[in-house]
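User: quick one, fold this
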Amino acid sequence: MPNKKSAERRVRTAERNRVYNRYWTTRCKNAVKKVLAAVEAKDGTEAGKSFDAAQSVIDKAVVKGVMHRNTANRRKKMMARHLKTL
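Assistant:
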């Protein structure tokens, strides 16, 4: 437990940020999983739509500061590599 008032505020802020970051991280992971599942099912149209949606979600996470841009680029490159196998 924090002893100072400013430390209490930091605890509240950190918890709020943790929940926010967790939301966006989970959203990114689910989008990537959806693309990879569509690729594994050999569904080209669904994989293409999911890929576009996943790129959008990942880019939004970068803008919000949840994910580093190099990490985002690596994830998008990985998805594109899997998509190319179709």
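User: anything notable?
Assistant: The longest helix spans residues 5-40.
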